Amino acid sequence: MRALWAMCRGRGVTPALLVVPNWHGEWPLDRSPAFVQWVRECVDSGAEVLLHGERHDEAGAPRGWRDAARAWGKTAREGEFLTLEEPAARERIDRGLALFTRLGLNAVGFVPPAWLARAGCLRAVAAAGLRCSEDDGAIHLHELPGMRRIRSPVVRWSGRSPARAYTSAAVAAARWRVQRSARHVRLAFHPADLDHPATARSVATALDRWLGERPASRYADL
Ligand SMILES: [Zn+2]
């Protein structure tokens, strides 16, 4: 996490942080004061915070076959909002935001884990008063009474296995060639991206390439 932050800051970029209130039910933020302190310091340096699910995984939320088809190849059971209808989504979002408030963190938006959610989740995000959310093809700006969809490819990596590490590095390189002219591109990093040399190299290359073409922007700019 800190290494990725330093990689970005070393290139003049202040990344937005996707923060999980209680990762896998094992890391409640209110019992992780050192981490919360680090997040606050990042915010003081200009980082935007987005709520990123409540626990991130799918524990206790069995998939139907349609859910399984949507999530196929995208995540190893880390699509917390994949199966949630509006009330359940709203409940988790509200709990997450309440915790953020207690910790002095202010979220600008919501990103469902693995960018997988149902239509009801978008309504829940808007009803909770958040200004933006995302899927893997677009950023949604909730502007009452409607919503504006900004097309935005997302480049991401996976180091879960060596094969996936090399594949995701190849996909990132291909996206640079194919989507270079896209107006809004998201580079999404996970702490484990630096664990494999292929993804670590690819992440650094992607930052240099995309930043060479355009300055980084913030959610607030949208
Ligand atoms: Zn995630």
Q: Which secondary-structure class do the elements indicate?
A: alpha/beta
Question: Ligands bound here?
Answer: zinc ion
Question: What's the overall geometry?
Answer: globular
Please compute the radius of gyration using only Cα atoms. Answer: 17 Å
Profile the largest sheet: 6 strands, mixed
> Could you state the order of secondary-structure elements as H and E?
HEEEHEHHEHEEEEHEH
Mean pLDDT rating: 92
By DSSP, the count of extended strands is 10
Oligomer: single chain
Relative helix content: 25-40%
Regions with little confidence, pLDDT below 50 for 5+ residues: none
The count of domains is 2
Distance between the termini: 25 Å
Biggest sheet strand line-up: 1-4-5-6-7-8
Strand content: 15-25%
How large is the count of helical segments?
7
